[in-house]
Amino acid sequence: MVRRVWREDFRIIGHYTGLVTIGVGLLMLVPMVTSLVFREWASALDFAISAALTLLVGYVLAFVSRTKSTPGLTHAMVIAAGSWLVAVMLSGVPYMLSGHMKSFLDACFDTLSGYTTTGMFLLQDLDHISQGLNMWRHLLTYVGGQGIVVLALTFLIGSTGGAFKIMVGEGKEEKLEPNVRHIAVLIWRISLIYLGVGTVVLGLIAMANGIKPYLAFFQGAYVFMSAWSTGGFAPYSQNMLYYHSSAMEIASMVFFILGSFNFALHYAIWSGNRKEILRNVEIVSFTITMLTTFSLVCLALMQRGVYPNVVALFRRGFFQLVSGHTTTGQSNIYARTFVREWGPLGMVATTIAMAIGASAASTGGGFKGLRMGIIVKGIATDIRKLLSPERAVVTGHYHHLHDNVLSDAVVKSAAVIVVLYVLIYVVGAVVGMAYGYPMADAFFDSVSAGSNTGLSCGVTQAGMPTLLKIVYMLEMWMGRLEFLSVFTLFGFIATSVRSMRLSKATA
Amino acid sequence: MNRLRVVLTVVALAVLIVAPIPASAGQPSLLSTTELVEDSYKWDGKTVSFKGEVLQDLMVREDGTWMNLSDDNNTAMGVFVPKDVPVPVISHTEDYRTVGDVVLITGVFHRTCAQHEGETDIHAVSVTVLTPGSSKANPIRRDRVVWLIVLAGLLGLVMRLYYRKPARGTEH
């Protein structure tokens, strides 16, 4: 039996969504200041308008739905999914005002791609946008990676009981500290320290490679934000090809591998538990699947004689594969090179890597290494059960921060999420094929959207069919929030409609 | 006989006038990024021409200079100019407020360059500035200033209501 929806439910959801929206509005001041620094007056005005509008919406929402009640699990899930939708639409305003988008849907596609750390884009003439808009694109992906709700929790929402539930709704279920605000602060502290280090390292490399000094550190920050959040954006349309620099690619790769690790793993290592990195089921799973898919990529590239030597094969093949596996999406080859040169096997191996994706509670997407590890261990345990005497008690274990017993419920819950991911990958690919795209291309871009990777083999562009854009957007949104909060939002809407009908009937 | 000679001369002249002689006969083909990437095997190792706007950074390295040339919406090609090839003065490179110089380069296209670890690039043998760049106006629109004033006013009002101290006896 589904409970009825009351006015207080709307108040709680409206109030917290309003607070998250205020957070987004305040965030817009960063690109506005960037534009002012670069004397991009028109762009600064666009951001001022967008910030004023977003803050206005946020304050109106928070004011009209004032409440002292704390959110329950249902509210939390609806707040997480709903906040993302409101944030996506309002964050699209500066895109539209810049004149670089063909439609508002395209603007929402790009902001959703940023927040979900996907990295696909439909923005026109990227090489001519303002520094302010470039900062906004990368900031979206950086904040999206840590979780916009986490940001709001850190600065706006106190240490409430419901706050942790909202974080869970956003896919950050690791309870590192007893106090939810401390968790949020911790996530931000780790991310900001890395931001400082990453900006300096990448900025120095950029400067050594001939980038103008006053731009080098901005570009270092952009590339870092994209890498650490496993986002995939870059300041120029050539992505990492722009820099013609192996040092830049290696440094970025280190940051996106780090970004793809579970925050709990970072915390364990920061707390002195360094052995965890060798034992953690996600790291073991990532290493195995990465080596397997990279072997397939090597086989494909060697069979076709794509690269002239081993160094070239490793620099292009390994970077692309790891970028796909960590669901980053940065690229040091052209999009169409996948189709024209890598061929079906190379594309399938990259698609599998993207589908599996990064670690749970990280900035990455995909099935996640933790679920892959649990399912494989579950299968192994079942085989051991079959081979053991009937009376023998066989239990499986997996190591994630500590040794855990592998119960049927844990395996089932991991399998359900994996099935849901496969479902969205297939739906996106079928829609793509229905529009006439070849199967390998349709699957490649669909999996890339659903796993929040952002690599493209040429399907994703402003001229693609509108329905396919919407399907990819749904894939990005569901993939990032891992389904539960999105389904709860749909359920809440359905229940609200039913409640309204019941009220009318009884009146 | 004379008549035949006249007819043949007229026909020959007509063929010379009408026959489609490519403007770039003897010149390397002028290609775009899309054409080069889509037909990378066909153009690999061939001398091609490429025209594009110089993007923001000219990256000077030990053995030459890298420039990125944008030739269409979101497509650009990396061009490596070896040290022994003279680079003309590039007065403007692209940014938000500047249209970069448009240059024409002739060079060898590499599908996967062995020297640059598999990069898709062109090694230039000549670089010519076709059109010098210029400053770009990004004017402030008056209607947007009005929008900002209206929104800021409304925001101030709502914030005042939101942060107003609750009256005694009410919930907030």
Major beta-sheet overview of chain A: 2 strands, antiparallel
- Summed over residues and divided by their number, the pLDDT of chain A gives a mean of 89
N- to C-terminal distance of chain B: 114 Å
The order of strands across the largest sheet of chain B is 2-4-5-8-7
Strand content of chain A: under 5%
Major sheet of chain B: size, sense and barrel closure? 5 strands, mixed, barrel
Overall SS class of chain A: mainly alpha
Do you know the CATH topology of the domain at 22-135 in chain B? OB fold (Dihydrolipoamide Acetyltransferase, E2P)
- Principal-axis shape of chain A equals globular
Number of strands of chain A: 2
Q: What spatial form of chain B do the alpha-carbon principal axes imply?
A: elongated
CATH architecture of the domain at 22-135 in chain B: Beta Barrel
Order of helix and strand elements from N to C terminus of chain B:
HEHHEEEEEEEEH
What does this structure look like?
The complex is a heterodimer of chains A (507) and B (172). Chain A has 507 residues and is an all-alpha fold. Chain A has a domain at 7-259. Chain A is 69% helix and 2% strand. Chain A contains 21 helices and 2 strands. Chain A has helices at 7-27, 29-37, 41-64, 73-98, 104-115, 131-146, 148-155, 163-169, 180-208, 213-228, 246-259, 263-270, 276-279, 281-303, 310-325, 337-356, 369-387, 408-434, 439-450, 466-481, 484-506; strands at residues 396-400, 402-406. In chain A, strands 1-2 form a two-stranded antiparallel sheet. In chain A, α18 (408-434) crosses α19 (439-450) and α18 runs antiparallel to α20 (466-481). The longest helix of chain A has 29 residues, at 180-208. Chain A is globular, with a radius of gyration of 23 Å. The mean pLDDT of chain A is 89. Chain B is elongated. Chain B has a domain at 22-135: OB fold (Dihydrolipoamide Acetyltransferase, E2P), CATH 2.40.50.140. By secondary structure, chain B is an alpha+beta fold. The N and C termini of chain B lie far apart (114 Å). Chain B has helices at residues 2-18, 33-38, 40-43, 142-163; strands at residues 30-31, 47-54, 59-61, 64-72, 75-82, 98-99, 102-113, 119-131, 134-135. Chain B has a 5-stranded mixed barrel with strand order 2-4-5-8-7. Chain B has a two-stranded antiparallel ribbon with strand order 6-9. In chain B, a hairpin with a 5-residue loop joins β7 and β8. Chain B has 4 helices and 9 strands; from the N terminus they run αβααββββββββα. The chains are: A mainly alpha (507), B alpha+beta (172). Chains A and B meet through α3, α15 and α16 of A and α2, β3, β4, β5 and β8 of B.
